[in-house]
Structure formats: structure tokens, C-alpha cells
Amino acid sequence: MKILLVEDDAPLARALKESLVNQQHSVTWVASGELALNSFREHSFELVILDLGLPDMDGMQVLKVIKTINAKIPVLILTARDGTEHKVEGLDLGADDYLSKPFDMPELLARLRVIERRFGTAVSAVITIANVSIDTAASSIEVDGQSVALSRREWMIIKLLMESAGRVLSKDTIEARLYDWGEEIASNTIEVHISNLRKKLPTDFIQTLRGVGYVVKKPA
Question: Three-class SS of residue 48?
Fold first, then answer.
């Protein structure tokens, strides 16, 4: 997923970003409400992780604006605030989950997987199409029951295509989901990753619609 992380605690944010990237997510980190809203208006994200205790504005206000811009975007709230009333307020404003600090990273990652399944096309952590299976919880892939080694970007692409099975994804869409804002991308980067993936997958598993994009067919 392409995630907007809004957290002003730099050590925590760096640790969060590292863990999320290790789970094959693309993460843009900002440390204030204003930067969060600017990033959200200018770029496309699939999920927001939002701290409530921001230096320039209350996180609840950021949540309100985000949901005004895109009511469907899933938001996971992180906060050190005690009290049920804060949790209720956040959920009433449209947050999809709430995690109190301090928290364990495995729990955060598990909650993100639940949100990802809820809002995506996948209904389980394991997706099987033909003789290819991916486990999104373990970040692993098997072909004919045999484990296949992929680079981080290759994994992100095949996960995206299999979760979106039956939908054609353009090169621009794939780039937007894989790379952070401001990250330089060579013009043929996606084509190179797709070419490398095809060498490791069954023939025609990833299909090209010339001038449109790439697709993995839905399972019968």
C-alpha cells in the first residue's frame, strides 16, 4: 500500500517507516498537520496513519479534512491520549481503527493487513490465481508450490496486480503505488520490473494491454 504517515515523533516515525517499508509498503512521512494535508491534496494514498498529537493542529481536525477530501480513505489513528471519548470521537469522524501508544509493531502490521483486506479485492492473506500463490502476511510467493525469490519492487508489483486481478493497471498507477513522492524513477523502471517478474512466473501470467497497462486475469 501507499501510506501517508503523519507523526511528529521522529524516532518513532523512522522506526515505523522502516518496518512498513520492510513489509513492502511505500511510505511518505510528514511531521505536521499542514504538511499532511498538503501531501494528501497533492498525491494519491491508499491509507493514512495519523498521530493525534501534532505540533501545529489537532489530529482530529486533520482527520476531518482528510475525510472531507476523500471519505473512503482508510485511516488508522495513533495516539497517547487516554480515555474512551477520544477513541469514540475519532471513530465517529471516520477513522477505521485506533491504536494507543505504546503499541507493539506486530499488532500495528496485523491491523493494517485487516484494513487492506477490508478495502481491497483480497479477502484473505493468501491469494491464489492459477498456480501462483502469494501470502501478503508473510510477503512470500510460490509457483507450483515452490518458493520464488523476488526483489522488493517485484513483490510490490505482483501483489498489486494479484490483489487487483481482472483490472488493468496503467504504468502511472503502478508507479504511484510503488514510489514515494519526490523519488526519482527512470522512464523504463516498471517495464524492467515486469520483464524480470515474467521470467519467474508462468508464461502470460502478467498480460500487457498495449498502450493501456498490465493485468493478471481473475481466477475462474
Answer: strand
